[in-house]
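Archive transcription. Copying these from loose printouts into the bound notebook so they stop getting lost. Printout 1 of 2:
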Amino acid sequence: KVKLETIFAKNTAKTGETLRLTAKVVNIENEDVFNPIALIGIPAGMSLQPWQLKELKEKNKFAYYEIQDNYLVVYFRHLKANETKVINLDLKAEFSGKYQAGASSAYLYYGAEDKNWQKGVEVVIN
């Protein structure tokens, strides 16, 4: 019922730079869905910006979030029929190397058996 797409603006960065990760959560149904969740894989060697997460929540881009290992878990109250929510994350490149995030997924809170999976994004930090 929901689909997740994650993509970097580019796949390389220098240590200390930020790199934009865009996550799109899409309701692929012709009806509202309730309590969708997105698990967004964050590559090792990169970090989320706490101030940005707080700002995104205040702007109602999502209802709640938490960080679990190398995942940003984003909760929504509902998505309207065919609605797309876009979350832009500016990740800071902390350590040089080549990294791949864990697979990302989206699903309904009460429908975890019906997950939409996506291969984790890759990045090279110099």
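Printout 2 of 2:
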Amino acid sequence: RWLARREDPAEVDLDSLGSAALLLVASGALLARSGHAGGPLLLLLAAISVCAGAASALGGHELRARVERVLAAVSQPPRLAAGAAVLLIAGGVSVVPTGHVGVVERLGSPLAEPVSAGLAVRLPPPLERLTLVNVAEVRRTPLATAETPLLTLDGALVSLEVGVHWTVADPLPFALHSADPAAALGALARAALVQSVARLPLDTVLTSGRAALEAEVAASAQAAADRAGLGLRVDAVQLSAVAVPAPVLAAFLDVISASEYKRELINVAEAYHATVVPTARGSAVAALEAARGNASTVQAEAEGRRLLVRALAEGGAPAPALNRHRTWTEGLTEQLSGRSLVLAPSSVHVWFDGAEATPGLLPVPPRGAARAP
């Protein structure tokens, strides 16, 4: 229009519909960029103006005339100012749905208290900006699938299907501290999962360690989310499927067979140990008691011999010759006891078991001993 006023009046073609459409598009884009709810409405009106202009070009002069009369009535400065004021104020009225809260930024600085569910009246954009956060929804972020096996403590691979369930704990950091809090939490929880699985053997992950693994990953993910200031609360980590990857299943079965054979050998060794050790302990106790009994017997015999010798020495002192003869007789009796004795002259040959026996001589009694009658 500014350029049109400088043209020749005969060549001026004031396209009021085109000008209105351009104005509405520019205003709607500006309001939408600032987060104003009236931006889409102005863009809709711009589309209607364009359609009216196209209809007039195709012969709809009556429609064009009506639209131009409406534009002429609305384009008066007081009415334009009032409409702009109403539209601007209406942008400050928002509805916060149930289960949501609104985080308000005033001139780029967030307010400490979020807006609860209901009708929220605030300063219009761009003075204040409202961001809705769903605090009631329980979201799930996948951490691992069967196509991404993990490595365990004993060097084996395991396929896990794991997901973390979380909700919004603090809407302010959730809305402002991270562009994608769900992706950030997924990366942190996935790192915790890898570390936890790497500290456990395969059998524990497959059988008894699943609950402990879920609790450990949840605690680690919560601690990492708190350090990152995501404003999230980890409700649970769920292992929906745990299995051995198909390419290594045969090797895993071999490992199980080897483990079972190892367990069998251990059981046999423990049974042998349970049998041999008590037997050896019993034999040792028996040998020890026998040795103690033998020691007592030897000691008693020695003591008896000592007393015998002492008695002989003390009792034979008055008659030493008789005592020597008695001891010689008793010794000879002890030597000949239990033997077969053949008395024959030296001229007679005695045979035993086809061999000639050599005659023996009786011990000579000690000198001075009294001879037997």
